[in-house]
Amino acid sequence: MSLEEYSAKRDFSKTKESTDGEETAQDGSSIFVCQEHYASRHHFDFRLQCGDLLVSWAVPKGPSFDPTVKRLAVRTEDHPLAYASFEGEIPQGEYGAGRVTIWDAGTYRMEDFPTIEEGLARGAFRFTLHGQRMKGSWNLVHMKEKNWLLIKRRDEHSLAEEGEKAKRR
Ligand code: MN
User: Fold this and answer.
1) What is each CA distance from 70 to 20, 63, 147, 151, in whole angstroms?
2) Nearest-angstrom CA–CA distance, 128 and 131
3) Which residue of 2, 5, 75, 92 is most buried, as measured by CB atoms within 10 A?
4) From ligand 1's centre to the CA of 26, what distance in Å?
């Protein structure tokens, strides 16, 4: 993992996005962030800290709290850790042009593997999120190429199928 692809896509004289991973996590815990991105196609960017990087997925429909719903999560380039606090406007003409807001943020811990590197290598892993919106146990499952599925696991923080439908109405 590296920031090569991230840096190649961006002109830092034009965008205010981070150039490196200058920010460190508090108290040694790992952080996550879910940014809402009003790009040409609206989506959510879900990111999990891995050392001084953020392993990243674009989730077109955003996370679902219904354990029966599997949300496509397309793996995108690693981002610098400092990107977790980025909110603002990526200028028109630049990569990912459009507004970015932090939809949720907090910490996470791996459940079935000691490190996220191992989870990524295995192609499926569980983790617990401690955010404002995203809480409890979640799954990321690799399908093929860059496609993964983000799935809420059933627990006290999941919504029943009907609850999720009601929320959308
Ligand atoms: Mn994005």
Assistant:
1) 32, 9, 12, 5
2) 10
3) 75
4) 25
Structure-token pair, residue 92: 């028109």
Write down the pLDDT at residue 18.
82
Region at 108 (left for phi over 0; alpha for psi -120 to 50; beta for the rest): beta
**CB environment 79-99: b (16+ within 10 A), e (fewer):** bbbbbbebeeebeeebebebe
pLDDT tens column, 42-62: 999 999 999 999 999 999 999
Task: Quote the CA–CA distance of 20 and 30 in Å, as a whole number.
Answer: 17
Q: Distance from the CA of 78 to the center of ligand 1, in angstroms?
A: 12
**Length of the chain as a residue count:** 169
List the structure tokens of 37: 């991105």
